[in-house]
Design brief:
The complex is a heterodimer of chains A (about 425) and B (about 160).
Chain A: H1 5-14, E1 24-27, E2 31-34, H2 38-44, H3 46-52, E3 60-63, H4 73-88, E4 93-95, H5 102-108, E5 117-120, E6 134-137, H6 140-149, E7 152-155, E8 159-165, H7 174-185, E9 194-199, H8 206-214, E10 223-225, H9 230-238, E11 259-264, E12 271-273, E13 281-283, H10 284-287, E14 294-298, H11 299-302, H12 305-315, E15 325-329, H13 333-341, H14 344-350, E16 354-355, E17 376-379, E18 395-398, H15 401-410
Parallel strand pairs in A: 2-3, 2-5, 3-4, 5-6, 8-9, 8-11, 9-10, 14-15, 14-17, 15-16, 17-18
Antiparallel strand pairs in A: 1-7, 12-13
Chain B: E1 3-5, H1 12-15, H2 27-30, H3 41-45, E2 51-54, H4 66-73, E3 78-81, H5 86-95, E4 99-101, H6 103-108, E5 115-118, E6 123-126, E7 129-132, H7 138-145, H8 149-159
Parallel strand pairs in B: 1-2, 2-3, 3-4
Antiparallel strand pairs in B: 5-6, 6-7
């Protein structure tokens, strides 16, 4: 009987012949990803760790990224506790402040291997689905228990089949695609589901797939899934992952889906998500001219080299509006170094951008670009919930790097296709 | 007992603002900020045994667990919603917080209605109407019944 990606990969890891949606299976994930919240996670089980030990020093991946560098004594102390834990239990995969955003680092370091299960105490863990990983977010308590036992349960999800056709017009990006899909399906349209992407996948560079998979949670999805094709293989080879290190799973033709959707990439236009929900999607044209105070280019959604390159090309030779603060936050040190090498950072800085250290920046409202009441931000991040950037009386619009770059120049929300 | 009523897509930033995520992790730290940006009266007024009614997709967004931990700690008896977001759903099981998916009960509820739960029977009474809700698989109920995942895990580890 034909099976979906989720059914095949979960059956394999549960060591069962086959599984069906709704079934509860026990699995041992290859990795548990944690970030700054590792401090709270290990704080729950200090005594248990002393008694039973860490189940496997290769299981946890810890990346300090959410509030880096530390903003106050409390966050600094949390980082200190995490470093002590890493040392005491010989945690193999630790990346201190400055290496990058957790999801980018996990992929760059070759820790998101196709065919594996990775759980993370962060909702955007679904990003690794771009590399054929069954990856999903969990809470801190689940993470704490995993450190002790190495195993947990998963409910086999229903699946949604999305076919992509053709390719984007200039000025339209993967961000516009995923925002359009979320606008159609709404914030709960894929709740509990595995979302598979089929069709003309080969036109999507790997970084586009990261952007798309990253935002699957914004429509409630459990995980996102892309097939491993030549582009994915090339990417993995480029970061030093050998083919023998992974196995791949993909859906069979004729598998059973909760629904089928199809998108013609060539017919898409630049869009934004308006305040205060990610599914409040409208064409850029409909809000063009809306004045903005801050622009954010970065985050685990759109802080990669191709995003910075796209923005730098649009901004090159122009200046950022004096009414706008443009914050540029590369997703990792590797991205920052490559962007410096290519001259994009120089271009953006000369145009008036502020370059911030790799990390989550103001996305979750902890520091580095908090908004004031009445202010409006246009951001390449993934959430625009009320209060998200630290102020409940501010507004956040989400858009592509192209739209953010074009808008930073004019000081108003601007269709990137109108910039010459 | 209070009944708190909220709409659709109540996200984790409304339940507990992200700016506190890395500085508040104990119940005492969490409680004053529950629903802070949505309903400032909640934190001051919530009592043990209160019930929350909500629309669809309650708890969507971040994986932060302060909402589930905080609601359980504040004494919420159950959250009854049309649907829940999955990370929050799992977090609630792990904290021993009772979530009930029962769209009919949510639609039927009118202010001043008496609400009582009959957990064993899997029913909920709203005013003079009674509704059934689906129960969880035994292996999941065992986690909630142990008081949460860590308690459950400790029991398991002791037996090894």
């Amino acid at each position: 009987m034909p099976r979906t990606f989720a059914e095949k990969i979960l059956a394999h890891h549960a060591e069962l012949e086959h599984v069906v949606p709704g079934q509860i299976v026990t699995v041992k994930p290859a990795h548990l990803m944690m970030h700054d919240n590792a401090a709270a996670i290990i704080g729950k089980i200090n005594d248990d760790l002393a008694r039973y030990g860490l189940i496997d020093s290769k299981l946890p991946i810890i990346v300090l990224d959410h509030v880096v560098p530390a903003v106050d004594e409390k966050t600094a102390t949390n980082h200190q506790k995490i470093r002590a834990f890493v040392k005491k239990y010989k945690v193999r995969h630790f990346f201190d402040a400055g290496v990058g955003i957790c999801h980018q680092v996990v992929m760059e370091q070759g820790l998101a291997l196709p065919g594996t299960i990775v759980l993370g105490s962060d909702s955007h863990t679904c990003t690794y689905g771009a590399l054929g990983v069954f990856a999903t977010g969990i809470d801190r308590t689940e993470a704490a228990a995993l450190l002790l036992t190495g195993e947990t349960w998963l409910k086999v999800p229903q699946s949604i089949h999305i076919t992509l056709k053709n390719k984007f017009q200039p000025g339209v990006t993967a961000k516009d695609l995923i925002l359009t899909i979320i606008g159609d399906l709404r914030a709960d349209g894929a709740n509990y589901c595995s979302v598979e992407f089929h069709g003309d996948i080969h036109v999507l560079p790997i970084e586009d797939r990261f952007t798309i998979a990253n935002m699957a949670i914004e429509m409630g999805a459990k995980n996102a899934a892309f097939p491993i094709d030549i582009l994915a293989e090339k990417y993995l080879a480029s970061i030093g992952v050998r083919k023998e290190q992974y196995s791949t799973f993909w859906a069979d033709n004729g598998a059973t889906y909760q629904q089928h959707l199809e998108y013609d990439l060539a017919s898409l236009t630049p869009v934004v998500a308006k305040p205060h929900t990610v599914d409040n999607v409208a064409p850029v044209k409909a809000v063009a001219g809306t004045e903005i105070d801050q622009c954010v280019l970065g985050t685990c959604t759109n802080g990669r080299l191709s995003d910075i390159q796209l923005a730098a090309k649009i901004i090159a030779g122009k200046t950022v509006s004096p009414h706008v603060r443009l914050l540029v936050i590369p997703a990792s040190r590797a991205v920052l170094n490559a962007a410096m090498q290519a001259g994009y950072i120089q271009t953006l800085s000369e145009a008036g951008a502020m370059i911030l250290p790799p990390g989550c920046g103001p996305c979750l409202g902890a520091h580095m670009g908090i908004l004031a009441p009445g202010e409006r931000c246009l951001s390449t991040s993934n959430r625009n919930f009320r209060g998200r950037m630290g102020c409940k009386d501010a507004e956040i619009y989400l858009a592509s790097p192209a739209t953010v770059a074009a808008s930073a120049i004019t000081g108003k929300i601007t269709d990137p296709r109108s910039v010459k | 007992m209070n009944i708190w009523r909220y709409g659709d897509d109540i996200n984790t930033d409304m339940l507990f603002p992200g700016k506190y995520t890395y500085t508040c992790s104990t119940l005492n730290e969490i409680k004053p900020h529950l629903f802070e940006d949505l309903d400032p009266e909640f934190a001051a007024g919530v009592q043990t045994g209160d019930i929350i009614f909500a629309g669809k997709n309650f708890g969507c967004g971040s994986s932060r667990e302060q909402p589930a931990l905080g609601l359980r700690g504040a004494g919420i008896e159950a959250v009854i919603a049309i649907s829940f977001a999955r990370i929050f759903y799992r977090a609630a099981i792990n904290q021993g917080l009772l979530l009930i998916e029962c769209p009919d009960a949510v639609m039927a509820y009118q202010p001043e209605d008496n609400v009582t739960l009959q957990l064993e029977a899997g029913t909920i009474s709203v005013g003079n109407q009674k509704f059934s809700f689906p129960t969880l698989p035994d292996e999941i109920l065992a986690i909630r019944d142990a008081g949460g995942l860590l308690e459950y895990t400790r029991e398991k580890l002791k037996l090894r």
